[in-house]
């Protein structure tokens, strides 16, 4: 990670840690990570794209790593998360940037583009496709109807339970299991019991992940805890209420979407038809391409680091 600089900036009432590399006058790319991740999830893209002349900026999002962890659940709405990024761009004097998101970061990026398309040159989103707001059913109820009460999004609604489980585990083991199992295309084992059953299968790390990587994630989550990241899920129904004015709104920025074919998000009921048969483009009219990376799981930007860096470069260089 040599050459990546780190600083903390005051944005939107919190202190936000950002990692940055690349020429100050180069076109800027804002990277938005997901759960349970950090700026570090973009380490390969930061190095690759900064070498190609781009200014790469990757924050620890609200509630993660070296960024402030607000105590109130209601401090994690989509408006807080997008607001943090707009304030960050303002503080960096960047009127427009390229945006790259993954997992929860993709959700935030879709909403950033919907709320403030004037600040985004183009978008590359990984893993989580744009899902239009359904005014007839709240988000948690939707997931409960598909997967039952034990689905992790539903389990996360009870404050303190999931994080207590995770924080009672060896943090290195937590990250070994979540990354290894997701790469294998299995469901994310986000309960302690399911993680315990996966121990032996995760003794050998995949080639794209090192012990040093695991150590970095573990050390940061030992400091911040898991509550901040889980609070994003606890706000999904509140987000559903707050975003009512954007029902049927479209994402109108040039977009490239990328997903691994083993990613759990690519196997939600009906999602492949939605992505490939016009549904996604109907809501994202400037969608240029939907790419499926064969043999890749959820953490695609780490599993296929150079492939994803090249996909991002090939798209943003057109603007």
Short structural description:
The protein has 319 residues and is an alpha/beta fold. The chain has helices at 43-51, 78-91, 104-115, 139-147, 152-155, 161-167, 171-183, 192-196, 211-224, 227-234, 236-242, 271-276, 279-283, 300-303, 305-316, and strands at 5-11, 14-21, 28-32, 55-59, 97-102, 120-126, 255-260, 287-293.
Would you mind describing this structure in some detail?
The chain has 319 residues and is α/β, with parallel strands linked by helices. The protein is built from 15 helices and eight strands. An eight-stranded mixed β-sheet has the order 1-2-4-3-5-6-7-8, with helices on both faces. Helix 1 crosses helix 15 (305-316) and helix 2 (78-91) packs across helix 3. The chain is globular. The two termini are 28 Å apart. The mean pLDDT is 95.
Main β-sheet, spatial strand arrangement: 1-2-4-3-5-6-7-8
Oligomer: single chain
Beta content:
15-25%
Helix-strand pattern:
EEEHEHEHEHHHHHHHHEHHEHH
**Helix count, per DSSP?**
15
Q: Describe the biggest sheet? A: 8 strands, mixed
Question: What is the fold's blueprint, element by element?
Answer:
Blueprint lengths: L4 E7 L2 E8 L6 E5 L10 H9 L3 E5 L18 H14 L5 E6 L1 H12 L4 E7 L12 H9 L4 H4 L5 H7 L3 H13 L8 H5 L14 H14 L2 H8 L1 H7 L12 E6 L10 H6 L2 H5 L3 E7 L6 H4 L1 H12 L3
Parallel strand pairs: 3-4, 3-5, 5-6, 6-7, 7-8
Antiparallel strand pairs: 1-2, 2-4
Helix pairs in contact: 1-15, 2-3, 7-9
Quickly list its features.
319 residues; alpha/beta; eight-stranded mixed β-sheet; 15 helices; 8 strands; globular
């Amino acid at each position: 990670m040599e050459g990546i600089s780190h600083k903390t900036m005051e944005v939107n009432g919190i202190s936000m840690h950002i990692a940055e590399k690349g020429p100050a006058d180069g076109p800027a790319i804002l990277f938005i990570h997901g759960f349970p991740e950090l700026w570090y999830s973009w380490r390969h893209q930061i190095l690759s794209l900064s070498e190609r002349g781009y200014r790469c900026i990757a924050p620890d999002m609200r509630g993660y790593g070296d960024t402030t962890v607000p105590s109130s659940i209601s401090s994690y709405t989509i408006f807080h998360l997008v607001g943090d990024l707009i304030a960050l761009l303002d503080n960096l004097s960047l009127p427009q940037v390229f945006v790259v998101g993954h997992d929860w970061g993709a959700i935030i990026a879709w909403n950033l583009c919907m709320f403030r398309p004037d600040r985004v040159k183009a978008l590359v989103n990984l893993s989580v496709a744009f899902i239009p707001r359904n005014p007839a059913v709240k988000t948690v109820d939707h997931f409960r109807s598909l997967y039952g009460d034990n689905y992790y999004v539903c389990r996360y609604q009870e404050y303190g339970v999931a994080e207590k489980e995770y924080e009672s585990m060896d943090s290195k083991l937590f990250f070994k299991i979540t990354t290894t199992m997701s790469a294998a295309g299995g469901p994310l084992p986000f309960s302690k019991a399911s993680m315990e059953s996966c121990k032996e299968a995760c003794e050998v790390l995949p080639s794209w992940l090192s012990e040093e990587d695991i150590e970095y994630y573990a050390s940061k989550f030992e400091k911040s805890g898991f509550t901040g990241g889980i609070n994003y899920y606890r706000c999904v129904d509140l987000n559903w209420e707050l975003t009512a004015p954007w029902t049927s709104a479209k994402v109108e920025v040039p977009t490239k979407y990328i997903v691994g074919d083993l990613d759990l998000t690519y196997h939600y009921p009906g999602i492949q038809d939605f992505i490939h048969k016009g549904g996604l483009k109907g809501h994202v009219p400037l969608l240029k391409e939907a790419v499926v990376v064969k043999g890749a799981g959820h953490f695609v930007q780490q599993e296929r680091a150079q492939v994803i860096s090249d996909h991002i470069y090939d798209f943003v260089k057109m603007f």
